[in-house]
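In the previous lecture we treated proteins in isolation. Real proteins rarely work alone, and many bind small molecules. This record shows how such a complex is specified: first the sequence, then the SMILES for 1,3-dihydroxyacetonephosphate.
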Amino acid sequence: MNIALIAHDKKKNDMVAFVVAYKKIFEKHALYATGTTGARIQEATGLEVHRFHSGPLGGDQEIGSYIANNDMDMVFFFRDPLTAQPHEPDVTALIRLCDVHSVPLATNMGTGEVLIRGLEQGDIDWRKIVHGKTEPVAKKLEDN
Ligand SMILES: O=C(CO)COP(=O)(O)O
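The predicted 3D structure, ligand included, written as tokens:
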């Protein structure tokens, strides 16, 4: 599965702890992240993560384009609901696209726990039917 990992600054520690805790599951999948979140995850876990631009510089929109093409199977976006973001429209757009394409989305660690366990036990396997392929989008990125 192709999994996007994104966290606002005050949620980055939560995201790192979450990926460390579930590293055994995440390492079986292709991981994508906004710039700073991805760097923190790589540093803490050693996992391979394809990093897009930082969120405020367009990373949310880049991930959004993969969601629009049905190339993301699951999104963990730990949002900070108490801090205004300069790129709030991008944040809203990404979430909207998840709803447009019925992509499972966790906007906090509580839902994240449910999604990651569901992923492990095969609850998200219907995504393979939706897009009819499991090839990591990183290959596409390399090809372009
Ligand atoms: O701002 C973000 C999501 O909206 C996250 O971007 P970074 O991972 O680059 O901090």
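Summary for your notes: The radius of gyration is 14 Å. The first strand starts at residue 2 and ends at 7.
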